[in-house]
Write a structure and sequence with these properties.
Layout: H1 7-31, H2 34-38, H3 50-73, H4 76-94, H5 147-155, H6 157-178, H7 187-209
Helix pairs in contact: 1-3, 1-7, 3-4, 4-7, 5-6
Length: 211
């Protein structure tokens, strides 16, 4: 563990990297439609709360400003003031963990953005199977199978078996499109959280050493 007069500088560098990763997360959240979804609260309880996000970012920035003043002036009171702002900021950050999991910027375009309101992405209703095949028969092909057609297929053993085969073939084909490759994006919120804890520990040690 680093010690001595370098501790405040180590904490400052760690704090700056933490803020950088946080800015990348907010950028991805906005690009994924998070701002639009937050305006739909409380109808969208899974959406980010703007006051929570603003409080988290604001407290962190105020604490960072106090820490920079401490590094420049050496006033111990400023170090403890920075920690006083940082502690509740971390608490607010922990309350947003589920919003960043998975990381919004890593979602594929086909999976629906945070504010799209498409079926299966927060509407509360599972998507119905699509129509297809020769046995769709009398009904016109549509993107969603009507409930009557679904009941008709399930009541017939042969049609039900064909429906299962169609669903399995679609489900086996979908992961290839979604999981085309590994992405580093989930490491951003993980790194942000780890750096926040490291920064807090370094800041506490630096404040104690400055007494």
């Amino acid at each position: 563990m680093p010690s001595g007069p370098e501790l405040p500088l180590y904490a400052l560098v760690s704090w700056l990297f933490t803020e950088l990763l946080g800015a990348l997360m907010v950028r991805g959240w906005i690009a994924g439609g998070g701002m639009r979804a937050s305006r739909q609260r409380p109808a969208r309880p899974d959406a980010m709360s703007l006051p929570v996000l603003a409080g988290h970012a604001g407290l962190n920035l105020i604490g960072l400003a106090c820490w920079i003043c401490f590094v420049v002036s050496g006033a111990t009171a400023l170090a403890w003031l920075a920690l006083a702002f940082m502690a509740p900021a971390i608490g607010l950050g922990i309350s947003t963990v589920t919003i960043w999991t998975p990381y919004p910027g890593g979602r594929s375009a086909g999976s629906g953005s945070a504010g799209s309101g498409s079926a299966g992405s927060g509407s509360g209703e599972p998507a119905r199977p699509e129509t297809g095949g020769a046995d769709a028969g009398e009904a016109e092909p549509t993107s969603v199978m009507p409930e009557e057609e679904l009941k008709r297929r399930l009541s017939d053993e042969a049609l039900a078996a064909q429906l299962v085969e169609e669903l399995l073939s679609r489900n086996f084909a979908q992961p290839q499109a979604r999981n085309a490759g590994w992405t580093w994006r989930p490491l951003i919120p993980l790194g942000h959280g780890v750096l926040a804890i490291v920064t807090f520990l370094l800041a506490v040690l630096a404040a104690i050493a400055a007494l």
